[in-house]
């Protein structure tokens, strides 16, 4: 991970700083009970404003990584206090990320990376019953819990009936709520979801603000409406250290 925060990135500066500090905590650079550098030191390290540093540190306090002690500094908390989500495969088809966060007591957020029309893959053609050369809508987002990235969502929709997605503001909004509003239904899983593991590389590591090599879970599924008509195909890529999977 580059030390300098990138003002041209899709991710807010505070989130880039947060990811660096969290990585230092997870890697043991700052041990449990140790203080992290002062605001002025962090300001120089990342070349960002004091306001940005304070926002990043406060998010880590809220997520249980750090604790502030007035007059003494900011210290690393024990691992048991840190943000962690449970993903149950039993309710994967009925519960949105926003709902799962609320149940766990976290504030859900999302960052839209891109939404564009692309050519359907062979898998898309088979699921959505499309002809070669037909297009689908590709939506890429990163989900956060208490401001910390925890999962990337890559979702694909047929153009027919979902053109509104291109113009929908889904920043910090539930995709399920949007589908319920526009389509009058809740997506349900069609068949089985496929769970696999991998490591973060390239753009995926950048999207999730984690170093390359970070362990990830990937969950692939196809979703339909109540009449079993295809709605969407989705990949959920979860950061292993921030998720547990219940089978």
CATH class of the largest domain: Alpha Beta
Largest sheet: 7 strands, antiparallel
> Which structural class matches the secondary elements?
alpha+beta
Superfamily at the CATH H level of the largest domain? Chorismate lyase-like
Percent strand equals 25-35%
Integer tally of domains: 2
The name of the CATH topology of the largest domain is: Chorismate lyase
Tell me the number of helical segments per DSSP (H or I, 4 or more residues long).
7
What percentage of residues falls in helices of 4 or more residues?
Answer: 25-40%
Domain HTH gntR-type: 11-79
Keywords: DNA-binding, Transcription, Transcription regulation
Protein name: UbiC transcription regulator-associated domain protein
GO molecular function, one term: DNA binding
What's this entry about, in short?
With 247 residues, the protein is of the alpha+beta class.
Characteristic key phrases:
Chorismate lyase; alpha+beta; seven-stranded antiparallel β-sheet; elongated; 247 residues
